[in-house]
Structure prediction request, 160 residues.
Amino acid sequence: MNRQLTDRRAQLTLAALAVALLGMLVPARHLVAQTQTVTVRDAWVREAAAGRAVTGAFMVIVNSGDTPRALVRGTASVGDTLELHEMKREDGMMRMSPVQRIEIPAKGEAALRPGGYHLMLFGLKAPLTATDTVRFTLTLDDGSSVQVAAPVRSMQGRMP
Prediction:
């Protein structure tokens, strides 16, 4: 009888553990579903000019969801600071300035390209060359994040 009681307690303990684990997985599965609506394609980083500790990153952020999203901040594996920036023409001159957010429309995309919206990396820890890959964590307005791996492109022979 004592053996049956011990076996029953073990079964109940395992069942309780299984229920607890399932309860922990539900929020994680929900989070994955949220972040899967925003993806990144065509990501790349401009090779840093000799002696410069700053460069730009470019990509297309795609929102396949029904809710508009916005990129609000990020981090990069190679720099001290990542800022969201925009180039725009003012008084006949192109000017770069930081922005608080980059809107990503529902069922649409935001193109981060040279001459427009882009990411600026400041305080590079080492020179970047065309053999490097930069890893980003981009944070959206709903708190979700997107992981990105972007190759560094050589600027030799290209317009800056």
In short: The chain has one helix and ten strands. The radius of gyration is 23 Å. Confidence is low (pLDDT under 50) at residues 17-22, 24-35. The helical segments are 2-35.
